[in-house]
Amino acid sequence: MTINRSSILAILVVLFGSPFVMADDSVTETASVLSLPDSWQAFVPCLKQAAKQYGLPAVLVAAVIDVESGGNPLAIGVNTKTITAPTPKTKEEAVIHAVELWQRGVNFDVGLGQINRQNIKEHRIDLEGLFDPCVNVQWVSYFLYDRFQKYGLKWTAVERYNGVNPEYSWKVYDALQRMRRMREFK
Question: What is the pLDDT of residue 164?
Answer without folding.
Answer: 86
